Amino acid sequence: MITGAEGVFPRSPLALTAGSGYQGNRYQEKQGQGASHYGFVFYAACRLCAASLEGDPRLSRMKISICLTVAARLLVAVAFTTVARPARAAKPVRPNLLFLFSDDQRADTIAAYGNPHIETPHLDRLAREGFSFRRTYCMGSTHPAVCQPSRAMLNSGRSLYRAPLDLRGVKILPEVLRESGYTTFGTGKWHNGRPSFARGFSEGRAVFFGGMSNHRRVPVVDLKADGGFTGQRIGDHFSSELFADAAIDFITRQPADRPFYCYVAFTAPHDPRMPPPPYDQRYRPQEMPLPKNFLPQHPFNNGWMTGRDEALAPWPRTPEVIRAQLADYYGMITHMDAQIGRILAALRFSGQADNTIVVFSSDHGLALGSHGLLGKQNLYDESMHSPLIFWGPGIPKHGSSDALVYLYDLFPTLCGLAGAATPRGIDGQDLGPLWRGEKTSLRNSLFTAYEDVQRAVRDDRWKLIRYPKINKSQLFDLTNDPYEMTDLSSAPEQVATLRRMTGLLRRWQQRVGDRQPLSSAHPEPAEIDLTGHPRKPDRHQPPEVVRKYFPKS
Fold this sequence. Notes:
The protein is α/β, with parallel strands linked by helices. It is 31% helix and 15% strand.
């Protein structure tokens, strides 16, 4: 149990069981009439789960998970009520910052954004009660692990060709906040090396240094007081639960007189696509709608066609396998959303929610059937587009912006919210003027890149993708073709548009230090057919995923 100055808050739903020290009368007295009712029902649900466990040790994991899901949702219901909360010490002038960061999450996988096929109640609430940036993008990547440069850009505030992958030699966001008086805590994925983590964070628990892993066997370490790390251990919970537990433990220990920065980097919904029960049964594959731009195969060689991400399904892609993978992907997102609900409940019960700004985003998106692709190693919208939500004091409710935004704009934005000086040399721009109504945009166009094989630029209406190795261009009218399905690069009436966008692309290259030529004197063949191409699972895929998606392995 976690005991505060007033009342008691459970570390997890199972903590509220017989012998846990839960005191219903005390809870009712301190929380008020409405909350006491929810608290009683929450307590009863947890007791039911405990009794089931005691009475029938063979009880299925699914039934246990259902009990816990009900209990967790009731807890969150209490957390968002407007009843009186436990008395706390005086609040700091500067807000706490809680940054929730997912991995490989498409921007269209939040129900509040118009997707009726997915359940994300806690993200929905943040979106409804906060401010959303609906056109937020990762600038791209210099290698296939797109998440690494994305996170380097975000944490350095620098653009793609100026952000060291190990963050060596540059000031990073948690470091700046730490130096300005914040307690900085990190949990989850840190793909940019141990030295940079130790430099930025004063505390760290269940930290995963790597790109991906089996979600039930995440290798993690803790940050020690001397800046070193504990020996590696294997996490004892599913990844999203493991990181949420660490965040909850940190939040509920924080004094009210010193601000904190809590960085929670989930590894979900990155593959392996292995949602835990009952979320593995939440979505029926046959009911999953295919992406509007689904294709069995990409129509030409984009320069990265057979890498690890793309080998997660055979060629040509069938509707059945894409629907199955979408069901698993959505299950992982809904499970992660439940863990976010637990974190938000802990924040409310800590008494610090009214002085905490919550940020939710993802490092980039994922194709997952769009354009015949599965991964994020391409520059279509589904792969570079990220969700971004701000919620908390001073953030307008029910607001949104269509300004073109980069993820690395978060660096100066969070510095501004924290009252910390933004270091020199960053490329990001503060988003605050957008939600305050002082500006409607920060930039008129946006550049993305992938390795040496793809370059793209877009403005409010048009998008150009260039493939230098095969001397090919695609031109899309985003106003009339938001899913990028009709290439107009050869249309006679768009010659001037193609020329203008090509010039814009070259200017962006010069601005960001990209020296990649846009044409090749010896182009590679564009035609490709991967039907029957051999593939094998990577070492992180658990046996059940291998059996499901690699039946011949």
